[in-house]
Design brief:
Three copies of one chain form a homotrimer. With 680 residues, chain A is α/β, with parallel strands linked by helices. Chain A folds into three domains: 11-158 and 229-401, TIM Barrel (Alpha-Beta Barrel); 408-607, 3-Layer(aba) Sandwich (Rossmann fold), CATH 3.40.50.880; 618-679, Sandwich (Immunoglobulin-like). Chain A contains 19 helices and 30 strands. In chain A, strands 7-6-5-2-1-11-10-9-8 form a nine-stranded parallel beta sheet. In chain A, helix 1 packs parallel to helix 3, helix 8 packs parallel to helix 9 and helix 15 (424-443) packs across helix 19 (598-607). Chain A starts with 10 loop residues before the first strand and ends with a strand. At the A-B interface, helix 8, helix 15 and strand 17 of A face helix 4 of B.
Amino acid sequence: MENILRGDKITLGTCYYPEHWDKSLWEDDLKRMLSVGIEVIRIAEFAWSKVEYREGEFNFDFFDEFLELAAKVGMKVIFCTPTATPPAWLTDKYPEVLNARQDGVLFRHGARRHYNYNSKKYLELTAIIVEKIAEHYAKHESIIGWQLDNEFNCEHWEFYSESDSLAFRVFLKNKYETLEKLNEAWGTMFWNQIYTSWDEIYVPRTTSFGNNNPHHLLDYKRFISDSVCRYAKLQSDILKKYIKPGDFITTNSIFGNLDCCRMTEESLDFITYDSYPNFGYCLNDFERMKDELNDRKWSINLTEARAISRIFGIMEQQSGSTGNHIGMEGPAPRPGQITLWTMQSIAHGADYISYFRWRTCTMGSEIYWHGILDYSGRDNRRLKEVGDVYKKLQCMKEVAGARFKAEVGIVKDYDNGWDSELDVWHGRIEWSSRMAWFKALEKSHTPFDFCYLDHISQEELNGYKVLVYPHAVILTEEGVNKLKNYVEQGGILLLGCRAGYKDSTGKCVMAKLPGLVSDLCGTDIPEYSYVAPDDAVPYAIWNGKKLPAAIFNDLLAPVNGGKVEAEYEDAYYAGTPALISKETGKGKTYYFGGAFTEETALSFLEGLGVASPYKDVLTLPACCEISVREKDGIKYIFVLNYSKENIEVTLHNELTNLYTGAIEKGEVTLEGYGTKVYRL
Amino acid sequence: MENILRGDKITLGTCYYPEHWDKSLWEDDLKRMLSVGIEVIRIAEFAWSKVEYREGEFNFDFFDEFLELAAKVGMKVIFCTPTATPPAWLTDKYPEVLNARQDGVLFRHGARRHYNYNSKKYLELTAIIVEKIAEHYAKHESIIGWQLDNEFNCEHWEFYSESDSLAFRVFLKNKYETLEKLNEAWGTMFWNQIYTSWDEIYVPRTTSFGNNNPHHLLDYKRFISDSVCRYAKLQSDILKKYIKPGDFITTNSIFGNLDCCRMTEESLDFITYDSYPNFGYCLNDFERMKDELNDRKWSINLTEARAISRIFGIMEQQSGSTGNHIGMEGPAPRPGQITLWTMQSIAHGADYISYFRWRTCTMGSEIYWHGILDYSGRDNRRLKEVGDVYKKLQCMKEVAGARFKAEVGIVKDYDNGWDSELDVWHGRIEWSSRMAWFKALEKSHTPFDFCYLDHISQEELNGYKVLVYPHAVILTEEGVNKLKNYVEQGGILLLGCRAGYKDSTGKCVMAKLPGLVSDLCGTDIPEYSYVAPDDAVPYAIWNGKKLPAAIFNDLLAPVNGGKVEAEYEDAYYAGTPALISKETGKGKTYYFGGAFTEETALSFLEGLGVASPYKDVLTLPACCEISVREKDGIKYIFVLNYSKENIEVTLHNELTNLYTGAIEKGEVTLEGYGTKVYRL
Amino acid sequence: MENILRGDKITLGTCYYPEHWDKSLWEDDLKRMLSVGIEVIRIAEFAWSKVEYREGEFNFDFFDEFLELAAKVGMKVIFCTPTATPPAWLTDKYPEVLNARQDGVLFRHGARRHYNYNSKKYLELTAIIVEKIAEHYAKHESIIGWQLDNEFNCEHWEFYSESDSLAFRVFLKNKYETLEKLNEAWGTMFWNQIYTSWDEIYVPRTTSFGNNNPHHLLDYKRFISDSVCRYAKLQSDILKKYIKPGDFITTNSIFGNLDCCRMTEESLDFITYDSYPNFGYCLNDFERMKDELNDRKWSINLTEARAISRIFGIMEQQSGSTGNHIGMEGPAPRPGQITLWTMQSIAHGADYISYFRWRTCTMGSEIYWHGILDYSGRDNRRLKEVGDVYKKLQCMKEVAGARFKAEVGIVKDYDNGWDSELDVWHGRIEWSSRMAWFKALEKSHTPFDFCYLDHISQEELNGYKVLVYPHAVILTEEGVNKLKNYVEQGGILLLGCRAGYKDSTGKCVMAKLPGLVSDLCGTDIPEYSYVAPDDAVPYAIWNGKKLPAAIFNDLLAPVNGGKVEAEYEDAYYAGTPALISKETGKGKTYYFGGAFTEETALSFLEGLGVASPYKDVLTLPACCEISVREKDGIKYIFVLNYSKENIEVTLHNELTNLYTGAIEKGEVTLEGYGTKVYRL
């Protein structure tokens, strides 16, 4: 694979901004990086004006000089396209390139990511700057790869400019061909919303009470994603004309309203992610956000990144406190946390770790988004810890390229994700169940993957012992066939409430529920309701395990071979089936009538025999995360202690500690924020 | 009276949307309705495009076909004007018809009720569509009545388009004739707000801190109400040219900034109300809203409807869970609740109950606004319960036309209502006392009416034993004369704090307080204050009963024959009179210096001898509501159990249970959500 | 000094609005004022239209008539320029004079302070009206002084009109001369914000996430302040051409984004302040705001006023409940509170007390902003209390002109104040420490001053025994030199965390921290962090006193003669220095690594020997405030009881009670809300 993910070692990098510093600092900076093991830097993602200070006046001297230095000292470079921050001259002259609030107020120059993806002028200017940069720099020996733009859809994942409405019409014409089909898809007969001309259609605008048509909103989210993908491909296609063989193209994601799987397939070699687990400790939001996981919750995002690229990179790995002058106030990483978060990334499949950033910026919005070094650039505790990380990585090169190992897959798809964002009924169950599953899996030390149903291959899917699709609200025949094949081949599929009540337009189906999976599940749903807010959470008992059925209850009935596994014990529908199973081929499907609590999820993990797969290898407290990567039949077990206290781990086998090479067994101590990587 | 309120039975209806369903479903749907007792349907309120798909192209085929079917199967129809949802072609071509946010941003196509009542273009297009529809359909045999538009002022009860400013000037010129009078009325000398030209006047615009002139705001609310009334009358006047004799005109209200009494007098035969008591159990707002009443609070709204039309209809009666994709998440009605809420409506004076809606919509914003049937249309528990309701109604036809019976009237008027919305000092006492009185009356089983002082006849008013006018802030001579006549004729009038300190402009009077009622009350108010937030609620003791004087205290002194009934026991003004009475003619007035708590209200009900008038007939727990309708000297007592638990009621008399015809006496059990109707 | 502050008595005044009342009331009103001791009235601040009803049509009759009456009865007058409320004709014809929301929506006629300071048209119209008024009225015998406008920057302290952007460019050109210097100052290299033309620069506009460049924001705040100062000077310069010798010019401040020191130096004779301590008891915000200080917190603002003018006036002193129809709902002052708040003002250095207002307005937004009299104008309790105040003042004329006495100065400067408003990291420590110091000083009865570092003379500064500069984030060489001179001359300077990490652009310095004060403090800061939200507040022990180091911790190291005074006892940096001292010249500097809690501040006050300087004179409970004014070697001790309970004070010396002339010693009782003024 590409340079930084080629599988023979885990590489360290950092983000560097030569334009922020006096040139006299450059050489010393690069040499100090190399001295602590940093071999790669990312540059230039906000540096449009360093190449095109005025429209059409291109000057390459600045980065020529810097790249020359990089080559001299032996620093490898990831170069970026600079489109995240158009220059002032550009947006002042062409305000049509700006993004807008839904009510039409433009987002002006002065922050970042204020452009839209659909302005013809911006696409034209983008093509020019990318072409100029690629043409000039791509052959440079120091460059090993490229980043497109920076954090597509960060800050804003909705776009309301006039250009967006025009492009939306094109998108819709391509999708529906006729207004009749669009009217049908959006159910515009409701509230007399029928469109009689394409020109009557806009991106969702300010409406009475913001009660916009939900099917319109769902297509709008797809359109936004399509816009980003097209924009990324525009850049990627230009770059590909110029880059050296072996050089890679990536971008740092993951953000809203963006099908990263598609973008990666179309335009990237792999995805990179920007990981800031210390957001879990931000002062301004801690009371609301705090729970027993905090920084450990970033493992969800790393799992997400892995669902896009099995092996991925961290383009920005937290190395200092975060924040800007308007919020996100974070403390400095405590001793050990930089190592912990680095190992968290690697444990989940990252083979490239680039610390954000080398020096803390002394100006602008991110003066508190600390890098490894503080403002003065003096040596400090964090730099020392980066050096220590490097030493650990030297001892664990064999982990590079190893694949994350999981028996449990949580099924996702973008349509349901987006629908759950625009529809509070869907969102309420989706977000609650997602956290419940994550907590149950994490705390029971059960590794898992996310599986994007529209993107994962049947073969990969069939490799999981158990698939959980918490709320498969929108179902397509294609998706159901994939699930059915999985079950027929021996898989165990668990579905939660509300499956199949919508089609891909987001409209409700008139078939008996659960619609397209009724047969696969052997289940009928004669009635359903939210759990009333003055009722306790109903529950069922299944093989002696309690299954709280939170938030929403489908009242089930078995059909077509379905077998009642458990009944509601509570509410006016006590005695009604709450869990029905059905065998199909070599496998089995379970339909559960509620949303999941952590307890429900744990009951299922245990009942389906997939909880805690490494309990025979080692025993460890809930505050530790376990992750396993595997290569050539060898397993690498990451043990990560997120608590500040020392904890005891019991090793039931002899395991090799990769950091030290020592064989360990029995009781071992892991210090606060400590990490271990064992070979099994 | 009109068809559905003709007094010989209570009629069931439902709301049907033929345009939402394949025609193949129509006939079966209508027949199923009839089979469970549903005899009337409302149609077409959002169907403008089904008649005028493009501007000026009228086509009546769709509803012709449907009405033909209705006639065939024997279904009666309430037809609607479709103006609540103008077509996309209309608002796109004529954006001046749109309503706007206060800051000028237009509410665009994509939701509903996005038009304004004052655009000349919209009035013109309204007249055309109403004329066309009336002309074509009004003679159809199946039609028995008409609904104007749908839910005037729902979603928005403020309008800020340019058309509104133009019309506001006309309204003000009619009212004030000269700018001098307007400047005087609005007190524009304050903060130099003097207008020197009519063109300087607008609907309230965005101002510094939103600190708009309150007298301007009050007239603006009157203007909004006037706008709706004019708009309703425009439609009603057209309809009256075409409708068959005996067919009625109504609309479904009640919403903000709208004098429904005036609208009904001018344009309707009676009012209908849309009753959704399950909003009391919405998940998204339950923690804030919950109290011991929940769905029972909807009896306030039913009392409001009755104040407009003594006998009224329910155009939309909740039959499933409510909600849309952006909120209002409701659980399904629990078994018995559909019956309970239906009987709640009837108990309060409704003789027509139309369930919203037949089938749950599968598309658009209201996919969660469930009807009787779910998406599939299969038979279900709720349909069965509707059938059961129908059977009960068959046994209680004699109740139809009976009038709600109350000895206590709560006096209201639109001016004070609106002033309390724009003035937080007024609102704080008004809203708190309103709920306090409602809870005390409900929980003590004391039926009451609302009496709109400007609309109720002197004769009707004088029929009440006790009138409570909690906070008669704005007083007019006309109103005071009405109250005085009431007292002189033997009535007991109770006023709370802050009476008479404003005139009808909303300006404060310079007369000694309580201004126009000082003489009637024998009361002077040398001093007043909010109860300081670090003080306990002061109270007085009156005939051994405690009268907490919440929120605001007038410090009273007797004048002109006033008699001190009780003094404050607390605060720095302990010993100052808190309650003064004065006899006038055959009656008596009480002036109380505070806002009312539930305890205060109950003390007054008991002290004035009007609490619990049926306590000799039956004894029942606080969780039950009692309502009484009377016809030809016979009383019908509705007993409604809002709790989920069974409760015991003790009948001291022999009473006939209308549902069964049985005579009951002594202890009887009412199941959770159970209802009884007794003949006395 | 000027008339009302001439040092021979404390003068009472009130605010009167002849334009609000029928002329028939005027004479009686003025005579009643005089009868209770009110000798001065302020008039005309919102009366533009009384002089220029239509553009260019001037008529002076109204105030001529009123001033004639004032002269007749012997009432002195403060006349105002009327620019706070431009007429409707003005803003309707010239909308460019309006202020706007950041997103461009204009603030329209209908409230007040809706103009901007930079519209050329408004400056032109201002000059005309001020000139006309001054020319006509200035020589009138009754007039003793002038108020400019009314409450500059109240309501809004941000301005976003087009005129403001144009003026901002001029301001920036004057400041930076070249774009290169501006780009450098604003760090526009960050996020590619480089400006290549002055026309690309605007006041801060709507941006993505509101994440505007902080250095741009800081200059914007300076520009706003500059705008107000220029606007005040425009008016003041005109007035000076016309006013009688000895007549003063003032305005009522203090509001945001305004360097009142500069404005006073340039345009005023002294500052006046509008004091409404009862805001501490507003119902609508009490739960959030309440603490043990409430109305006593207004002493911060009085201290602020004193920092601008050693002797100042209260232009609006609360005399009734406050509030408008949209909020700020206040109870009436309780008996004694008018006296208490009056004495609070005098205790802090006010020699003129003008009650707001004579009669409560019956119209407009401020119908609840009560004056001495209620709507009817009848005699009342509050009027009586004003008369009692007057009697007290008759007994304490000798206090007039006495100067507030404090050994402790809290150092402030506008740059740090403004930076703390735009930067949450700065604000979090600044606001917390400010309240901590205030509470510790107040509750330990330690009088203090605020010292504006850029405005106070070196001599005045050196008069303080201890200076506390809680968070000297932005430091300049000039400021540091002033502090150094203070220390060299024997002062004790205490700095809290984060000193010197920014320069005057708001950019971070690359020098080792604490930057410019490193040498003066003998301190180096190798590392720093927010206190993590899951950690307890770290603390140090210093001479047996506990020093909690809240919010943010600098981890210190001694350099250049610094001496470790205390170390952190907690967190991962336990054992690291938390407090370092260094002697310089005759004085000493302390650098403390945290933000201050009340406990920390008290420990320092005690440890530095400046706590409770009057503890040998009298002992009193924490709920009492003590203030001392001194003249000719005589001290006047104000003792103010903010609680509603009687409290005991022990006098260790014989003290003369100025109210009574009696000598008191030993235990004396101060009733609830009671006040005493002793001569020492």
